[in-house]
Amino acid sequence: MKSLDEIVIVGGGSAAWLAAALLAHNTPELKITVIDKEVGTPVGVGEGTLLNFEIYLKRCGFSVDEWFTEVDATYKTAILFPNWDKEGNDIWHPFFEPRSVADGMPQVDAWTNCQQHDFREYGSQFYDCNVTQDRVDLNQPLGYHVDASKLVVFIKRKLKDKVTFIQSEMVSINRDSNQYVKSLVLKNGQTVTGDLFIDCTGFKSLLNQAPKRVNLDSRLFCDTAIAGHVPYIDREKEMHPYVRSEAVDHGWVWNIPVRTRIGSGLVFKRSITDIEEAKDYFVKYWDNRIQKENLKVIDWTPFYNENFWHENVVSIGLAAGFIEPLESTGLVLIMEGMALLLGRIRDHRYNDGDIELYNNVMKYYYEETIDFVSMHYAKSTRTTPFWNYVKEHRVPSEREIYYANLLKNPDKLIPNGCKDVGSYFSGESWGHWLIQLGYEVAPKKLPADKQTIEKLVIETHTRTEKYRGTLSPKHHEAIERLEALHNLPKVTQAMR
Hints:
By secondary structure, this protein is α+β, with helices and mostly antiparallel strands. It is built from 16 helices and 25 strands. Helix 1 (14-26) packs parallel to helix 7, helix 1 (14-26) packs parallel to helix 10 and helix 10 packs antiparallel against helix 11.
């Protein structure tokens, strides 16, 4: 059994400060130290969040009213994937559970009986309200678009009296005879001791001396991104309440509208598209609203470290692994990792069983996320070099096969070929995607005749559109109200 009095976090990005915030609020008896290098190099791509973001910040003691305007947040109801499997076919991935058209009759199940209607509009959640009308229901659970660098600034300010912050380079690591980290020697001459060390040093993973690295480049296909900030031209139109992840010839482009600008990037495979070609394409994609010299290049090999917690070092964020930006999983895995860690050390101690459980659960989180992201690339009919490479190398996972069989056989007991199907990405998320990708769907047996079900589906769609259209504000209107309330300066738009 190892006791805890001091926890040291090494790193200065969102992973480090989200970790510090959770620990400082929930384990105030422990001494928390954050060590960041003298000159930071933030990656700055993780600006789209999922539903756990607001919950996590509440667990850190931060209410929405405190951080929303400070991090230039806007609302996120879903992710839209324009032209994804083919030109003209948009995939819609909503956040909300599908509503019922009647008691015991989920909307998706009802839609399977009348498939002549567009699934996004009649079998999913609020597509027309969110996409064609840009409306946002503030009474529903929401994700957010945030400026990750401003999030770090906010957390640092809130924690200035709760944690010890040291800005210096790490020079060397002192370990005991069992190879546990005892202390860190810093460039400024300090030696910092600790009982547990959280490695948020990015891809370098400086503290874990024996990472069990699982290479994922045979299961995932993107390894590079170029990213930058795009000024608004028409904020009212461009500030949509969802992330756009648009398939393009070289890979895909993300578009995340925060309050003051758009965060965007092109994700691709560098062995197929070189950096300069990608930059030229991206500048043209944005009609020269961003310049090549302002683009940041981020490259990675998709991986995770199977021993997330090794000895007295816990890897969080990019030190633990990276999949790709699709579906905004980076921040999710940071927060899931920290929430799990907090649960193992609440009594200020841990043992080998805690380490084993942590590693098993985190491996599962990563594996299910990998399967879900890989599934997005199924069924593409594009014929560019990148998409041809995907078609030649992608192999469906056991999870994908399971959920595909479930769609074809909704009323049969399907043998579960993979362990613990469904977790963060539920069966609803898988179903939404597979249906829109064109996987075979059989009608679900329901306690009503087909004519009645058809009527209920249409009535539900009409009612939803009417309700959202009258009671839900336009996204830009909701943000403008908050700007006026907080006397925020007017956002400057690009001149054309």
